[in-house]
Specification:
Helix content is 37%, strand content 12%. The chain contains four helices and six strands. The strands form two sheets. A four-stranded antiparallel beta sheet has the order 3-4-5-6, covered by helices on one side. It has a two-stranded antiparallel ribbon with strand order 1-2.
Length: 204
Amino acid sequence: MKLFKRLTAFTLVELLVVISIIAILASLALPAITGAIAKAQMGQALSNAKQIYTATLTAVGDAASTGATNFGWPGDITNGMTTVQNFADMLITNDFLKAQDVAKVFTCAGMKQALVTGSNSVTLSADNVGFTFYKVQDSDAGSTVFITTKNYEYGKALTTNAPFKENGFVFFRKAGDGAVYKKSQATDTNLLGSLPTNQTPLTP
């Protein structure tokens, strides 16, 4: 007499239970994963701001040693620097950053890069600039705000704007110190620092 081995399989109910458990675990993990991704992206934005700051500081040093007035801190340039495009052109024209570098570091995650129109030219717009730049002057204190991500407006709660909405923001000061801050720190100007003498930022 032959014995047949009985095959076992999941029932439909068991399969649905397993799928439900997986879905619940995924929904619990999603906020943590999303938060980790946003934090990593803000870390990259901080690195970009640092590169912009370093290029600007080189311009400031060269201006101090040569007496040049066409490059340096945005608020000290005498040719009426008013836009982010002006600022980028100053860095590129005087060889403090390459056009390709400006396209990379002026943007943030989730935004398209600016169009490099030549070896010495880049066309910027609000769609590909992830930062707000303030017209810092040499006479401003080291704690003065120089660069922030565009979702931050000084002294106000975070907006839902790109690049990071209400997940956090990057704040970089004239002295060269910057950090990624939480949503709850957006209105703490004592922690963050002060506005420059010329409080109007460069327009996108």
